[in-house]
Write a structure and sequence with these properties.
The structure holds 2 protein chains of 2 kinds. Helix content of chain A is 72%, strand content 8%. Chain A has 17 helices and 7 strands. In chain A, a hairpin with a 2-residue loop joins strand 3 and strand 4. The two termini of chain A are 20 Å apart. Chain B is mostly helical. Chain B has a single domain (3-311), classed as ABC transporter involved in vitamin B12 uptake, BtuC. In chain B, 72% of the residues lie in helices and 0% in strands. Chain B has helices spanning 3-22, 24-50, 58-76, 80-102, 107-126, 153-179, 182-192, 194-199, 204-230, 240-253, 258-278, 288-306, 320-330. The longest helix of chain B has 27 residues, at 24-50. Classes of the chains: A alpha+beta, B mainly alpha. Chains A and B meet through helix 6, helix 7, helix 14 and helix 16 of A and helix 4, helix 5, helix 10 and helix 12 of B.
Chain lengths: 443, 342
């Protein structure tokens, strides 16, 4: 280990004089942007976490890297996008959406009834795992048709559709393969097959929509109105202004003042706004808040699930040793079903936020997946808190790196993708166990 | 060779012959593509079929080979053979760079590292300055044709395709030699049970590294052939889908069987070409290119599920001892081990 460290130190020292001047210059330009970078990396970290935690969760029970995870996320994003934009067109409920909602509600109810009838026979748990999300999907679609889709509705639909896709991919592909004693490499290749199928089925869908309905649904903005905020730090007070209100020339701009005098919600006139310095210290949007709240809720509920409930205990037991868990009377199959369902659901939520942040297109999940792999490996495949920490570390590295690159030469920002990939390769060279190994050593 | 492979092989050759009788240029193009993909899938067969390594970044190594050869030829007028050699060396270096940290870890890490390096190479190539020889998103131009002195375009194409087929034949011969050598047996032992291979004193790490380095070098040669055929390279042709098309070829053909892999290559390419021709005559409410990619995914899953050994299953290693045993059996003196399975 010391040999390796010495080698890396030597390499760093050798390359230092080459880059020191330009990087230091760039760094001095970047320092004032640090608050913005931290905010951005929290946002990006949230998104990385939502995708990468699914990889970690399936890895704990299935023991292989699922390459279809990104495309499962795209399915959820597309479901939410279509529901938000096409459930109600011009004030009229879309007939297709209504039919879909009714069919999946009824289908979910039938599956649940079947589960209730068969639950004593032992194989009904798959029906429960499928029936509940299908019922939820139907209800969410019907809700959107009559009351309009809001964010929570979209999160539900993204989570359920991705969860169903993920569970079906397990039931139809990975489970039969495992029963046929497929090797680890074969399972990974099969997951790539699933990924290709899903991705190009989505491409086919965009093509179909373009040709037969004349509606372009690839490379579109999500369309949800997003409020943006700007913040200044003046005289020990943090002033946060609703910047979207400024755009509409409202005379009372909602303003939040956080300082020594406590937190105050006031209004600001246009004249006062123009007296503020032109360059805000921080700027952020609704998405930052929503994604952070979502991540906090998810982390809390996952921690509660793992530490306090019987299901969580069974899950950890299955992750540790499935044969021993089965010998103790744990229903291993149900736990694995649940793991795939939850992983898919989280991926769907992640995909929804990614689509809202950038654009929606069929390759979205695939592009995110490669970064998520870097996160999962940095976190040490299979560790919950490792993944959590790695998401934010990698996001910060990426945001800081991009700012430095942009300060050196704005053209270099095209290399942004190389930052997580280089971190990934560095981790493999220096410490392939990832962040999870730090905790283990102390224990 | 077994019956399924023989029948399918005859069908493939017949279809190519039919194409050749209608349009020579098209048939030559087809043969070049089969040779190019066959070299790439032979290299994947060495990694996946023989050693059990999961290389999901084949297209990245092909791109390294193609761009090395392309830049050397376009900017420095390096002759064709040296370009091919340099392409192989460059791709081998990238392969070793990935292999050193990952082959001693679980298979997942190699899979993730290779898929990431494949995309990384594509993004790097996309971001090269557009006014340099690399060309960035506009692509690399100005590769000197190796048979530029032949004036007739068809004859020039014929010469180049002939050379490609020759290189492909050489690769095949090399692969058969390696596969049936002690090296091939060690690689197969690693694939089947790495612990057992290690327990008899084989340093498996070095063999796996060797396998991925050689595989990458051969992929680099395939890339160089690609560069000199089209004389133009664009980073966006090296998308991950190409890697998985090569995987389908290996999985359909039969892992650790070089002849089977070539058959799989020919089948996949012919399916691709025939559907492209058929789409002009049959109207389906589907986009054919996307549908083909979906088909690739379905084929991977179905073959892994129902025929994981591929169309042409793996044969026992062809060693002198084995030949002696087979001869003995033919004369009715003894039975070869494992022969009862048939």
């Amino acid at each position: 280990m010391s040999n390796k460290r010495a080698l890396i130190l030597a390499l760093a020292l050798m390359s230092a004089p080459l880059y020191a001047t330009s990087v230091l210059q760039a760094f001095s330009k970047v320092v004032p942007q640090l608050p913005q970078i931290v905010l951005d990396s929290i946002m990006l970290g949230n998104l990385y976490f939502l995708i990468a935690i699914g990889i970690t969760l399936t890895f704990t029970v299935a023991k292989f890297a699922n390459f279809a995870h990104g495309d499962v996320a795209t399915v959820g994003a597309y479901a939410a996008y279509l529901l938000y934009n096409f459930a109600v067109i011009g004030g009229i409920v879309n007939g297709l959406a209504l039919e879909l909602g009714i069919i999946s509600t009824l289908g979910g109810l039938v599956l649940l009834a079947l589960w209730y009838a068969l639950r004593k026979k032992g194989f009904g748990n798959t029906l429960l795992a499928l029936g509940l999300p299908i019922l939820l999907t139907g209800l969410a679609v019907l809700f959107a048709c009559y009351f309009g889709a809001n964010l929570i509705d979209l999160i539900v639909i993204a989570a359920t559709t991705s969860g169903i896709t993920s569970l079906l991919s397990y039931l139809l592909v990975y489970k039969p393969l495992k029963e046929r004693n497929a090797s680890l490499v074969q399972l990974m290749v099969a997951s790539i097959g699933v990924a290709l199928f899903i991705r190009y089925a989505l491409y086919e869908m965009t093509w179909y929509s373009r040709t037969y309905y004349g509606t372009e649904i690839a490379y579109q903005n999500f369309g949800m109105p997003i409020t943006s905020y700007q913040g200044w730090f003046i005289n020990g007070t943090l002033i946060i202004v609703n910047a979207t209100a400024v755009l509409y020339f409202m005379n009372k701009i909602p303003t939040l003042k956080i300082g020594a005098g406590g937190i105050k919600l006031t209004a600001m006139s246009m004249e006062e706004y123009y007296k503020l310095p032109p360059q805000p210290l921080i700027s952020f949007t609704d998405l930052y808040i929503w994604s952070t709240v979502t991540v906090i809720v998810i982390v809390l509920s996952l921690v509660l699930l793992f530490k306090k409930t019987k299901i969580g205990k069974a899950w950890r037991a299955v992750a540790d040793n499935p044969i021993l868990a089965a010998a103790c009377g744990i229903d291993v199959e149900s736990v694995i079903n649940l793991a795939w369902l939850v992983a898919g659901a989280l991926a769907g939520i992640g995909g929804l936020f990614w689509a809202m942040r950038t654009q929606i297109y069929p390759e979205l999940g695939w592009m995110v997946l490669l970064n998520a792999f870097a996160v999962a490996v940095l976190g040490g495949l299979g560790s919950f808190w490792g993944t959590f920490a790695a998401s934010y570390i990698l996001a910060f590295a990426e945001q800081l790196g991009v700012s430095i690159l942009a300060a050196i030469n704005p053209q270099y920002t095209g290399y942004r993708f190389l930052i997580p990939f280089s971190v990934f390769l560095l981790v493999l060279y220096i410490k392939p166990e990832g962040l999870a190994s730090i905790k283990k050593r102390r224990a | 060779m077994d019956k399924v492979g023989l029948v399918l092989g005859i069908i493939v050759v017949a279809i190519i012959a039919a194409f050749a009788s209608i349009n020579t240029g098209y048939a030559l193009d087809l043969i070049f593509f089969i040779a190019f993909y066959a070299i790439a899938s032979l290299s994947l067969n060495l990694e996946y079929g023989y050693t059990g390594l999961s290389d999901f970044g084949k297209v990245g190594f092909i791109a390294v080979g193609a761009y090395t050869a392309g830049v050397l030829s376009a900017a420095f007028n390096v002759p064709f053979p040296l370009c091919v050699l340099a392409a192989a060396l460059a791709a081998a270096a990238v392969g070793a760079f990935i292999g050193i940290p990952t082959v001693k870890l679980r298979e997942d890490y190699l899979g993730m590292a290779t898929i990431i390096i494949g995309e990384m190479i594509r993004i790097l190539l996309r971001n090269t300055p557009t006014n340099s020889v690399w060309g960035g998103v506009f692509g690399l131009r100005g590769i000197k044709p190796p048979f530029g002195f032949i004036k007739d375009p068809l004859a020039r194409q014929l010469a180049y395709v002939g050379l490609s087929v020759l290189i492909f034949g050489l690769t095949y011969w090399l692969m058969e030699r390696w596969g049936n050598s002690p090296l091939g047996r060690v690689l197969k032992a690693i694939r089947d049970d790495e612990l057992a291979a290690r327990s008899v004193g084989k340093y498996t790490y070095r063999y796996k590294l060797l396998s991925i380095t050689l595989g990458s070098a051969i992929a680099g040669i395939a890339g160089a052939l690609y560069a000199f055929y089209f004389l133009y390279l664009n980073p966006d042709t090296f998308i991950p889908l190409i890697t998985f098309i090569i995987w389908v070829m290996v999985i359909i053909g039969g892992m650790a069987n070089n002849a089977g892999v070539i058959l799989g290559t020919a089948i996949v390419i012919l399916i691709n070409r025939l559907t492209q021709i058929a789409k002009d005559y049959i109207k389906l409410p589907l986009e054919p290119n996307y549908f083909q990619a979906m088909l690739v995914g379905i084929l991977i899953i179905l073959f892994l599920m129902f025929r994981p050994q591929g169309l042409v299953p793996e044969k026992p290693v062809n060693t002198p001892a084995w030949r002696v045993l087979e001869e003995a059996e033919r004369e009715g003196r003894a039975k070869p081990p494992g022969g009862e399975e048939e």
